[in-house]
Amino acid sequence: MSVIYHPHDDKAKAISYQSFYLGGDLYVAPVLDPSHMSVEVYFPGKRNETYTHVWSGIKYHGGRMARVHAPYGKPAVFIVGDPAHSDLNDFIKFVEAENGTVIQV
């Protein structure tokens, strides 16, 4: 899915199975093994594009890789840029309410 939003990003094409967009405002890099507490994430696009980790608020920039903390129950989900509409408000309220929850596996 990264290829749709970043058709000229060769790295995004090569790892399209590792992450995906949910619409244009959310970017997800799933952890497929519950024993892993982090995931290596490639953020497609240009350096001026930002991806804000919903759980920590840390901003990442396009064209870079980063290891992101993603314990069970808190997947590596990012808000892309600065959405101009309120469609994510309910999601953001959910994240704020659940951020302190710890799930044991």
Report on the architecture of this protein.
The chain has 105 residues and is α+β, with helices and mostly antiparallel strands. It has a single domain (2-98), classed as Immunoglobulin-like (Sandwich). Helix content is 18%, strand content 30%. The chain is built from three helices and seven strands, in the order H-H-E-E-E-E-E-E-E-H. The chain has helices spanning 2-5, 10-14, 89-98; strands spanning 20-22, 26-29, 38-43, 50-53, 59-61, 64-69, 76-80. Strands 1-2-7-4-5 form a five-stranded antiparallel beta sheet, with no helix packed on it. The protein has a two-stranded antiparallel sheet with strand order 3-6. The protein is globular. The mean pLDDT is 85.
Summing up helix and strand content along with how strands pair, one would put the structural category as alpha+beta
Instruction: Report the average pLDDT across residues.
Output: 85
- The total strand number stands at 7
Count of separate structural domains: 1
- Order of strands, widest sheet: 1-2-7-4-5
* N-to-C series of helices and strands: HHEEEEEEEH
Assigned CATH class: Mainly Beta
Any idea what the CATH superfamily is called? Golgi alpha-mannosidase II
What's the Cα radius of gyration? 14 Å
Poorly predicted parts: none
Taking the sheet with the most strands, its summary is:
5 strands, antiparallel
Distance between the termini: 30 Å
Portion in strands = 25-35%
Q: Helix content range of the residues, please?
A: 10-25%
Number of helices: 3
Shape: globular
CATH topology: Immunoglobulin-like
